Inverse folding.
């Protein structure tokens, strides 16, 4: 009974709002398709100018572009419900296949970036929270730089130094673990900076709380207090923020995959956007919305695990 | 690699800051035995700058598709870099005197990698499929020219007919775009040959093993291959057991894969890195001038002020082409004198130095044309109108070779003689519509194809209409007949003569400003042997072996 | 970078969890100084260099930094110092412009939500949900695809992702006013409800909006320069920092100065905005919690 109201009800609410967000994203994406200037057929042909009018008409018919806009929308929705994301203009392949083939490298990159971010942020916060002002100022400055430096620039600098000059990491691609290191650091650094700031503030707030004093009085050591009490107390904002930031990782992947010559969703997004390959762009909008919805659901469930108060009500 | 001091300093600071990272540099020794015998086996990675949007050579117009598919698709004939044709899948051929009918005697021992024998019916199936509108061929169909049909004379004899004389056909038949897919694959997968991979079955020395978008295409050797083109160093299976194309658009990254041995061969080495790469031990740099059209500016003779020949000539002579090209390409790309590159048959060497930089002449011509006033920014005016020419910029993803930067240098030169060049940027559809609709002043392009017939595309008035490439919009009976004559004969002297006149005339009319001759720059490790290039400067891996 | 949360996301809401802090005076002083310099450079780059950012000099190609050219020259012999200085204007302008657009859009949307009744509120907030569900850079890419490249379009493209955050603040402030009794009282006196709310809401919301906006400028600059770096924002030959960096990318090994200085410029500028914005945020929350 309690499980049902405490867990299932929020999940149901979550699902309803997820559905609303997804539908909204689909509508926005279709509107975007209509607003894109230029003839899709020319987009498909690219720089080629030698195609005859007959060839153009054929392409038009093949992609259903000869239909009226309302009819196109209905077909689009119909296909969407059946899981068909359509055909790429530029690559002339099914969009669903294109995207699913690119998921793994991006998932690895995002997992790597989150690991880098959380490890750096937690260690920075644990080491500096409530310590000497000089130490905190130094850490704060590093975090500020990490948040403020453009990641494409950081990526190129890391690539030049560690791959081109020192030959420590492979130059490009997605072959093995070593090729994941620099991209993960590049993508994870700004997030680490932001997380560390919030985490330290939350920990310092916790260290000033009466329960910390109680714990100290019970004889728990400095490190123990930090690890057991302060960190746990700070975990809620950490989880919330991590969830929100994970959603935006997909945007960062566009830059990082471009710089490090990695395949993935980000590289596909950039290619589709610059070539106005709208079926792919639309599908990517839907995928990002879905990803965001999933992440926020996970975050909500994590609250229940971390904060016992939410469980017992 | 030499490090300048600040770069080295940064390197160390960052290295120290990141203590947890461990190094694993790979030292590679490359001792090359001279006159060594080819060794079979080994795997080679070739890093290229573009990735095909479609792997079907019958559909895609992309160079990279042709270069990749060459490993899988064989052709009827093979053209060597001197322009001579050799037997390949066709053992011999005859051409009718009116150049409208080509008959090929095919080899009898060729099979596709799915076991289907290669015969006259396979040739017909492929050519008919290319010509069929349903295929939506964007390039190969134009290589078939005035195609009428293919006739199976007997199992191993095939005749291709044209509705008009078509001299360039042998050259076209030698390209991978007119290469052969297994008729079975053609019938079963006509819709997804674009996606590449195992569905693409040919008779070639390699088999298309797999494709990862954004990363690589992998090929494995075809062990039964025994029909290498006449003129190649061997005829059996390829030496490499595995060939990987890596797609790396960023040039610094591409060079990095070569110096760190992640790739053995790379293409499109950026000009500014050629010198440092040449100093790198264990690496050789090859520079090959591309045949076909140079990188040209086309002046639209139908819009003001370019309808005045004096203005066109002033632009032609007012650009310090030699200095600009040298600065942007570090002396790696030579400046051009003709709309054709020197490595193209029919190139007219008499044009060299015939129209050198002359800003005084440019100023004089503009004065004569009445552009004598000056506005506040120093641009010339006539009756209150500024001497301004629009030269649209391609969307960023289509700009290669830093042509936008070169354009800025040209803009600066013309500013000195008082001509304003504006460079708006449109999306590709709008760009093509405006450009080939005759609405722009200047257009720029290069056109790689080892055949002077490209001049027909550039200057014949039939090429002005929709789908044409004539961006000068100049209608002239002499140019029309000269470009048509070249098409209708196989006699080299006659062709050279017609094409030479065309080149001379378009420079005199100042409808064209040739800028530079594109160079294919390939970097390879010294362990790579036997790498050759076809007439398009595309790498041929059939004879490559590793030491 | 765009992986950073936009204003209005929890990071901003969590900020009030403050603890004893080291005095930030020296940092703030430095940031104010930097702000003044950046503003001056953006307004009048000619004060700081006599070189032209577009002056092609074919004979002076790729000179390393020295006394003649402080930041060296690029592949057409143009002075990189001048280009970085002149690049401040488009870079700062796009940051300011897109923040202004986002503030305006957010205000309109927030008010529409507060005044639009139940359905208006629902529609606006669901729209905000959808926009928040998409990565800012993806939204900007989508917008650039539709609008095309160029400075003005870039401002709009970057602004879209920031609108929901501002809209939520305005809506919250508006609801406080709506639910307070004095509005009802004033309506009873015959004043128009919407005029009244706008008049009371805007002054209240202005503080938090401006504070968030300052941090937002830095974020917007990062976002815009990322797009320019990808070739989708400000177009060369306008010397925008992201575009400069993109042009210097191929030269990172042979001519490091082409890529390093524009990158440093972006970073310093964004740090400045962040420091100033956070300082304002702290001051503001202190004042409002008192």
């Amino acid at each position: 009974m309690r499980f049902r109201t405490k867990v299932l009800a929020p999940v149901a609410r979550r699902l309803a709002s997820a559905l609303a967000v997804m539908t909204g994203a689909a509508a926005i994406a279709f509107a975007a398709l209509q607003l894109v200037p230029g003839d899709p057929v020319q987009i498909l042909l690219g720089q080629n100018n030698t195609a005859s009018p007959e060839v153009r008409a054929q392409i038009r018919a093949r992609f259903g572009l000869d239909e009226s806009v309302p009819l196109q929308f209905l077909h689009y929705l119909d296909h969407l419900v059946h899981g068909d994301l359509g055909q790429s203009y530029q690559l002339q392949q099914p969009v669903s296949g294109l995207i699913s083939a690119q998921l793994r490298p991006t998932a690895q990159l995002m997992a790597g970036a989150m690991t880098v971010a959380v490890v750096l942020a937690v260690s920075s916060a644990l080491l500096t929270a409530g310590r000497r002002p000089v130490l905190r100022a130094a850490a704060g400055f590093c975090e500020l730089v990490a948040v403020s430096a453009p990641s494409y620039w950081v990526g190129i600098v890391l690539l030049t130094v560690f791959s081109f000059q020192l030959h420590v990491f492979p130059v490009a691609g997605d072959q093995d673990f070593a090729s994941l290191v620099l991209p993960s650091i590049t993508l994870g650094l700004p997030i680490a900076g932001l997380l560390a700031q919030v985490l330290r503030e939350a920990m310092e707030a916790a260290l000033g709380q009466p329960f910390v004093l109680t714990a100290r009085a019970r004889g728990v050591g400095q490190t123990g207090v930090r690890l057991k009490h302060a960190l746990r107390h700070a975990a809620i904002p950490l989880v919330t923020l991590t969830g929100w930031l994970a959603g935006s990782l997909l945007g960062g992947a566009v830059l990082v995959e471009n710089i490090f010559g990695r395949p993935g969703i980000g590289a596909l997004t950039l290619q589709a956007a610059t070539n106005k390959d709208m079926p792919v762009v639309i599908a990517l909008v839907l995928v990002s919305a879905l990803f965001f919805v999933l992440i926020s659901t996970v975050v909500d469930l994590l609250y229940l695990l971390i904060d016992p108060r939410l469980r017992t009500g | 690699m030499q490090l300048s001091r600040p770069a080295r300093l940064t390197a160390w600071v960052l290295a120290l800051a990141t203590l947890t990272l461990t190094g694993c540099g790979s030292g590679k020794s490359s001792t090359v035995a001279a006159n060594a015998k080819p060794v079979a086996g080994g795997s080679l990675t070739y890093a290229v700058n573009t990735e095909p949007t479609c792997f079907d050579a019958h559909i895609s117009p992309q160079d990279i598709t042709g270069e990749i598919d060459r490993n899988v698709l064989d052709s009827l004939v093979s053209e060597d870099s001197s322009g001579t044709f050799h037997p390949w899948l066709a053992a011999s051929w005859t051409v009718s005197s009116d150049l409208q009918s080509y008959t090929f005697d095919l080899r009898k021992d060729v099979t596709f990698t799915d076991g289907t024998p290669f015969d006259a019916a396979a040739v017909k199936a492929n050519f008919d499929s290319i010509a069929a509108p349903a295929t939506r061929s964007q390039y190969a169909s134009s290589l078939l020219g005035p195609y009428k049909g293919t006739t199976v004379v007997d199992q191993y004899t095939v005749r291709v007919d044209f509705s008009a004389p078509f001299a360039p056909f042998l050259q076209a038949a030698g390209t991978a775009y007119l290469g052969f897919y297994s008729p079975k694959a053609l019938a079963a997968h006509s819709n997804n040959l674009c996606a590449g991979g195992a569905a693409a079955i040919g008779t070639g020395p390699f088999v298309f093993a797999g494709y990862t978008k954004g990363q690589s295409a992998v090929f494995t050797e075809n062990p039964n291959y025994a029909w290498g083109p006449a003129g190649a160093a061997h005829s059996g299976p390829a030496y490499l057991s595995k060939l990987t194309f890596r797609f790396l658009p960023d040039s610094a990254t591409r060079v990095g894969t070569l110096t760190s041995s992640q790739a053995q061969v790379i293409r499109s080495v950026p000009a500014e890195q050629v010198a440092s790469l040449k100093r790198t031990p264990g690496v050789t740099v090859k520079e090959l001038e591309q045949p076909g059209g140079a990188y040209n500016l086309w002046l639209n003779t139908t819009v003001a002020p370019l309808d005045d020949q004096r203005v066109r000539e002033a632009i032609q002579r007012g650009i310090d082409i030699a200095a600009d090209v040298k600065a942007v390409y570090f002396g790696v790309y030579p400046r051009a004198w003709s709309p054709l590159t020197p490595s193209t048959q029919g190139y007219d060497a008499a044009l060299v130095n015939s129209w050198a930089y002359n800003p005084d002449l440019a100023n004089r011509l503009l004065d004569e044309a009445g552009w004598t006033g000056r506005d506040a920014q120093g641009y010339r005016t006539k009756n209150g109108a500024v001497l301004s020419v629009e030269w649209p910029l391609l969307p960023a993803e289509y700009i290669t070779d830093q042509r936008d930067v070169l354009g800025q240098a040209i803009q600066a030169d013309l500013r000195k003689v008082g001509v304003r060049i504006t460079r708006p940027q449109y999306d590709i559809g709008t760009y093509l519509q405006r450009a080939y609709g005759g609405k722009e002043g200047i257009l720029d392009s290069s056109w790689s194809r080892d055949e002077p017939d490209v001049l027909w595309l550039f200057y014949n008035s039939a090429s002005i209409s929709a789908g044409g490439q004539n961006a000068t919009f100049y209608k002239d009976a002499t140019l029309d007949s000269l470009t048509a004559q070249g098409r209708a004969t196989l006699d080299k002297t006659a062709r050279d003569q017609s094409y030479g006149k065309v080149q001379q005339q378009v420079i005199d009319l100042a409808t064209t400003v040739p800028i530079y001759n594109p160079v294919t720059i390939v970097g390879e490790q010294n362990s790579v042997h036997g790498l050759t290039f076809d007439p398009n400067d595309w790498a041929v891996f059939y004879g490559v072996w590793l030491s | 970078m765009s992986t950073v949360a936009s204003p209005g996301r929890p990071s901003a809401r969590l900020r009030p969890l403050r603890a004893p802090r080291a005095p930030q005076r020296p940092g703030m002083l430095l940031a104010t100084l930097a702000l003044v310099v950046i503003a001056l450079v953006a307004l009048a780059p000619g004060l700081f260099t006599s070189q032209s950012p577009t002056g092609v000099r074919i004979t002076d190609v790729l000179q390393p930094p020295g006394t003649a050219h402080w930041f060296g020259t690029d592949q057409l012999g143009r002075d990189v110092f001048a280009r970085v200085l002149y690049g401040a204007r488009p870079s700062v302008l796009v940051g300011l412009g897109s923040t202004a657009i986002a503030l305006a859009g957010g205000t309109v949307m927030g008010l529409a939500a507060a005044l639009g009744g139940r359905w208006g509120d629902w529609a606006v907030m669901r729209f905000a949900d959808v926009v928040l569900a998409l990565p800012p850079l993806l939204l900007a890419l989508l917008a650039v695809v539709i609008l095309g490249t160029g400075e003005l379009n870039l401002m709009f493209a970057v602004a879209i992702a920031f609108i929901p955050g501002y809209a939520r603040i305005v809506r919250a402030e508006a609801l406080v006013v709506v639910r307070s009794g004095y509005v009802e009282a004033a309506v009873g006196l015959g004043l128009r409800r919407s005029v009244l709310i706008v008049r009371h809401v805007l002054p209240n919301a202005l503080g938090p909006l401006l504070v968030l906006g300052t941090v937002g400028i830095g974020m917007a600059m990062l976002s815009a320069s990322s797009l320019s770096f990808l070739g989708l924002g400000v177009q060369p030959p306008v010397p925008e920092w992201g575009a400069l960096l993109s042009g210097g990318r191929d030269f990172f090994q042979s001519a490091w100065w082409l890529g390093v200085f524009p990158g440093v410029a972006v970073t310093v500028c964004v740090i400045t905005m962040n420091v100033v914005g956070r300082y304002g945020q702290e001051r503001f929350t202190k004042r409002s919690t008192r």
